[in-house]
Design goal:
- By secondary structure, this protein is α/β, with parallel strands linked by helices.
- The chain has 2 domains: 98 residues, Urease, subunit C, domain 1, CATH 2.30.40.10; 325 residues, Alpha-Beta Barrel (TIM Barrel).
- It contains 14 helices and 17 strands.
- Strand 11, helix 8 and strand 12 form a beta-alpha-beta unit.
- The chain is globular.
- It binds zinc ion.
Length: 459
């Protein structure tokens, strides 16, 4: 067993002092003792310890197009015009590009405090829409990138079958995404054979959205996956855009969240990404389902999607987590602050997501994002507790935003103050130090490969 002693550490129930952590060879915590004495020969952490945060929604390749669509292309620029540009970009992506972009992105995630990622992966085929000789070619690029960098991965290959409710046939630019349910289930089995699951790798499935998959195929993929792994996570884009809400109502007579909850056995295996447009009744039903709401505040703001019903949903104890989605920003604190500020701006009040029982808003957001992110990941990454993976961040106690702060002021300094460099000094995954003094061992190679990939993609 390896051990570390921390003067201060945030455990699931709050801050504790003199915490002795021990973890086994698999990187799983087997000892979490507050109020301990530092044993001889055991190192002391350089600063306060925070549990790492899971990133529950990522499309890795989109990192390379972040900031490329920030100009007016048409008078009513929206998600849909952004998507056209994204499709053109996706068309050029090779396996080598995806690997390079993912390595760069996953290092950025670690430095930002994300110790795991759920990859909602929908480019499966060659640019002409034909399957690669190895159908798992692009999935394996993501697995290799995560392993190279050290971040935990839940890989969610996406089922994408049609251009919209109706059904509408796929567009030519969607050819790389299109997969039959049978193909998807074969891929699931193949991946588990070639790259078996372990503590840092898990598989699930992502029916893209109700607009991209019919009810019949949604049933088929869910039951097919259940036969392979009855606990595997299922993620879906649910109600990001008003247009998909009205299209869903026109076809099914119900809004997307309501339809899904009435027609699928939605439970803790499920993650509903962008549950942005919900009625109060949908908020209530989703919160009691056990499913996780996937909130991607910076992407939702960037795309002009709308504002999540955070105050009502959290008041009903709904599970939730955060994702960086399109990667316009890769930052735990940006996502948490963006969520809180969206509620403040809408409701014209402060500390919108705090309550009498959770007065410290930053601490509540951090802890709940970990609990929900762990559930959505289908992995044991729910913080500094026995049986969970040894994933943590070490903060710089002398950073101007943290110096002199008491326990209950630390997270507010991290989440709400934005001055200079990040106070995150070290990042540890499964007991392995991956970022030290802001550097990752693969920094130089990753940056070089990323620049080359970007040059080719932007030519
Ligand atoms: Zn997405």
């Amino acid at each position: 067993m390896k051990q570390l002693f921390a003067e201060r550490a945030l455990l699931p129930e709050g801050w504790h002092h003199h915490v002795l952590l021990g973890w086994d060879d698999a990187g799983i915590l087997v000892q979490v003792h507050p109020d301990a004495t530092q044993p001889a020969g055991v190192a002391k952490a350089d600063g306060p310890l925070l549990p790492g945060v899971p990133n529950l929604h990522s499309h890795a390749f989109q990192r390379a197009m972040a900031g490329l669509t920030e100009y007016l292309a048409q008078p009513t620029d929206s998600f849909w015009s952004w998507r056209e540009l994204m499709y053109r970009f996706a068309q050029r992506l090779s396996p080598e590009h995806l690997y390079a972009v993912a390595c760069q992105l996953y290092i950025e995630m670690l430095k930002a405090g994300y110790t795991s990622v759920c990859e909602f992966h929908y480019i499966h085929h060659a640019p002409d829409g034909q399957a690669y000789a190895n159908p798992a070619e692009l999935s394996e690029c993501l697995i290799a990138a995560a392993a190279e960098v050290g971040i935990g991965l839940t890989l969610l290959p996406v089922l994408y079958q049609q251009a919209g409710f109706g059904p509408r046939p796929p567009l030519p630019e969607q050819a790389r995404f299109i997969a039959s349910t049978d193909w998807m289930l074969v891929l699931q089995t193949r991946l588990r054979g070639s790259h078996p699951e372990h503590a840092r790798l898990r598989y699930g499935v992502a029916p893209h959205s109700l607009r991209a998959v019919t009810p019949v195929e949604l049933d088929r993929v869910r039951t097919g996956l259940h036969a392979i792994d009855s606990h595997a996570p299922i993620h879906i884009h649910i109600a990001e855009q008003i247009q998909e809400v009205t299209d869903c109502e026109a076809l099914h007579g119900q809004r997307p969240v309501a339809w899904l909850l009435d027609n699928q056995p939605v439970d803790a295996r499920w993650c509903l990404v962008h549950a942005t447009h919900m009625t109060p009744a949908e908020v209530q039903s989703l919160a009691t389902s056990g499913a996780v709401a996937g909130i991607c505040a910076t992407t939702e703001a960037n795309l002009g999607d709308g504002i999540f019903a955070g105050v009502d949903y959290l008041a009903r104890n709904g599970a939730w987590g955060i994702g960086s989605d399109s990667h316009i920003s890769v930052s735990v604190v940006d996502e948490l602050r963006g969520l809180e500020y969206s509620q403040r701006l809408r409701d014209q009040r402060r500390n919108a997501l705090a309550t009498a029982t959770h007065p410290n808003v930053a601490e509540r957001l951090w802890q709940e994002a970990i609990a929900g992110g762990s559930r959505a990941s289908g992995r044991s990454i729910a913080g500094l507790a026995l049986g969970q993976q040894a994933d943590w961040l070490v903060l710089d106690p002398e950073h101007p935003n943290l110096a002199g702060r008491k326990d209950d002021q630390l997270l507010a300094g991290l989440v709400f103050c934005q001055h200079g460099n990040t106070p995150i000094k070290q990042v540890v995954v499964a007991g392995e130090t991956l970022v030290k003094d802001g550097h990752h061992a693969r920094d130089a190679k990753s940056a070089r490969d990323y620049r080359l990939a970007l040059k080719a993609l932007l030519e």
